[in-house]
Amino acid sequence: MGSDRLSRRELLRLAALSAGATVVAGRAESRTLSSEPARSSSEHTLLGKNRLGDFIALSEELTGVKPLDSQLAAQYMDRYVSNAIVGPYLQDLLDAYKSITLLSPSDQADAIQSRILDPAALLRPAAEQLVYLWYTSAFAIRDQSNPNKIIWQYGDEHQYNNALIWKVNHGHPPMTTASEWIEAPEHSASSYH
Amino acid sequence: MAIKSNGPDFDVVIVGSGVAGALLAHRLAKARLHVLILEAGDFAPHRGIIQNNWVTSPLKTADSPFPDPIVAPQPREATGGREYYIENIPKPAPGDPNPVVPFISYYERLVGGSTWHWQGLNIRMLPNDFKLKSTYGLEQAFDWPISYDDLERWYCEAEYEMGTAGSDADAKVYAERFKAYRSRPFPMRPLAPSYLDKWFADKLNGKVINFGPDFPDLPQVSLIVTAVPHAINSREYDDRPACDGRGTCVPFCPTRARYEASVHIDKARAAGAKLISKAMVYRLEAGADNRISRVTYRTWDRTDHSVSGRIVVLAANAVENPKILLLSRDQQHPSGLANGSGKVGLYLMDHPIKSSYALAPEPLYPFRGPQTTSDIGVLRDGDFRKVRGAFKTSIKNDGWSGPTAAPRGRGFPFRNPDGSWNIAVPDEDWKPAGSGMITEVSEVDDVGTLVSFVNQWNLFGTELRKKLEFHCTRQITLNTHCEMLPIASNRVGVSDNLTDRFGIPRPTIHFTVDDPGGYTRASFEAIIQFHRQVFAALGATSVHLGADPKDKGLNFVGAGHLIGTTLMGSDRTTSVVDADCRSHDHPNLFILGSSVFPTGSTANPTLTIAAIALRAAEKIKMELHST
User: Fold this and answer.
1) pLDDT for residue B380 is more than 80
2) Which strands make up the sheet holding B589-591, listed edge to edge?
3) Which of A28, A177, A182 sits opposite B78 (nearest CB)?
4) Where are the beta strands (DSSP E) in B447-548?
């Protein structure tokens, strides 16, 4: 991997995820709805069907939730790659993950840690965005005017309703769906353990 | 700007279509009076659009469902109100315990007003709340010119008009402790307590809290968890459905189970009232007889119009009511209309909130149902009010969403120069009090959000999922708001040179949360001690108390309860309106809303606003019919 390639990545790391939407004075919020192509599906994605498998496998690895919905994955992958701020990361992230899966199983966990999840890894911000997307249906973009503030970029209501956080917290998508609140949830024991 | 031809005269011209204006318009239109409502904002769009506005909004604040194309110029939560409120907030002097702080309560300017985003807590004031000064010898406070007895009938009527779910059994507790009797039962049973509430009640009911030697004025108090009265349906009522637990009373109930003023706007219009939207009243004119002769408003096409009414009612809010009066100054009234006392705009109040939060020792499954279904109100009154403000504590059903924006998160953490973690969002120059954000974090459990677990603590995969599940099912929060005293220097004014996008001068605000006697600070100290004791009784862990350093400004969150600025009183030299909400200076001008409250009490203000509006409606109706 040449130095030019690293420079480009470094540039992306420093700039891309901190170039998000800015709250505009005089307006409530700048809505940065990033809509995926209408026909996103497991058969039709911007990166191609072959990459969807990597996208899902990596997503399951990072979120700790398996199996993930393939239709939603197709929508998320297209949203990711279409997003001007986070999109440039995705190919590199999937390439890195693909190469890791070619290692022996005993080496994969360490490789994911060092190449993707280590706080100093160039791909770490991209991995974080993948987790935020699945758990909230939104990208967490740094506010350009205030780098410690997050501008959440949501998709559509279907994606909001299927955010993983509502399942993990035994709650429900606020506003869009009803909830029972008087008794413990029917499946109050973790459905994942 | 050109003045267009005057419209027809009306019996009553009402400025504002929030809960006061809506209930008044309905009562008067039903009485066959010719009523005009002037509303600064637009009609709300289809409910599906409002919902989508929120679902796709980045910040998910109380005003997220209502973007600018709908509302008139107003303070925005996203910017701390800065594009609307004009505030001169110097950096606090070292050791100043009560610095000038931003006023962090906001409102909605559209048809229906702030009831679009209110939580629906429909709570009465207590008898002693109406006589704080005389009961407790508080020279800085005021007595109301009306009593609980005067208002009780109207509380009942308001509860039935709005639909109120409450517990008659719990009401007896307040009747016995505080003499807050009821002459009618609630229209419907209370919203069911949450699973979390029931666990709290099991642990706390009958538990004696001892405040300790630092609080000699506070008694040992036996706790009781009670159902909160809501203007949220527990059964179908007034053609609106029962609550099905959407969990977003604030900022929007998509089903209409929660009352909103548009209910009575619709009824008023059906009864013949006329409503003009996008009509921003900015000036009243008084004739030689001191009666209000014209009401001038500007529409969104920047055209000015004026109308007249036999009666004129200002029913905007504690910022917009004084703004209009102050903008109405003329040669005869150089300080503005209704301002013979010089008190218009003074005594701005809120219910400052202290939040503390912790983890329960077992899963309680928050993030479901209405945001609050039970509270602890045993310290809403008592002799301690001689030295510190009373308070009321909500048991929150939405985890740490208030203090840390859980489960999602609000900001990326960063490291302080000493290496410790900090998740506060640094302001350009000074971090205002009341952000509701914690400022230092040191443990993995301190923030309890997705962003913190991932970005700060490097949790991914199964470890992340398990941590989220553990946290999100155990997060508990106590939200306590307290009364603050009326302080003359807390005031609303109008700018001489800064205007909104329609050329109307913007309001200026000067606000400090405490008073020179430290009444609010003393209340905050008691609240934190109360939180400490409650969490101990619950066996909670990871306890975060919102305590304040002694020599620094107070941290709090605004309640959105804008109170004061056109006070009610029997003395025309110290108040703006009389006991009927009629201006002391202008016999055909009434002012409604919580701007007339002389003191704030611990009750969420909407029910009292509604009761006073219905009482005023009766006065206005009788007066107009008799003439």
Assistant:
1) yes
2) B274-276, B35-38, B10-15, B309-314, B589-591
3) A28
4) 475-482, 491-499, 505-510, 541-544
Apex B10 CA angle, B7 and B14, nearest 5: 100
- Residue B315, pLDDT > 70, answer yes
Asked if A28 contacts B63 with a C-beta cutoff of 8 angstroms, the reply is yes
**CA end-to-end span of chain B:** 36
**Alpha helices per DSSP H over B230-384:** 262-270, 320-327
pLDDT under 50: residue ranges of chain A: 1-8, 10-12, 14-16, 18-28, 30-37, 192-193
Q: Is A82 on the interface with B (CB under 8 A)?
A: no
How far apart, in whole angstroms, are the C-alpha atoms of residue A138 and residue B209? 44
pTM of the entire structure? Answer: 0.93
Confidence grade of residue B2 (pLDDT, cut at 50, 70, 90): very low
Residue type, A36: E
Q: Which residue has the higher pLDDT, B435 or A62?
A: A62
Residue B428 has pLDDT above 70, yes or no: no
Asked whether the beta carbons of B483 and B382 are under 8 A apart, the reply is no
What are residue A85's phi and psi, to 5 degrees?
-90, -50
C-alpha distance from B336 to closest chain A C-alpha (Å): 28
| % of chain A surpassing 90 pLDDT | 64
Residue type, B141: A
Residues of A in contact with B66 (CB under 8 A): 28
Contact at 8 Å (CB) between B412 and B396?
Answer: no
- Exposure on the CB side of residue A112, measured as CA atoms within 13 A: 20
Q: Where are the alpha helices (DSSP H) in B179-295?
A: 195-204, 262-270
pLDDT band at B48 (very low <50, low <70, confident <90, very high): very high
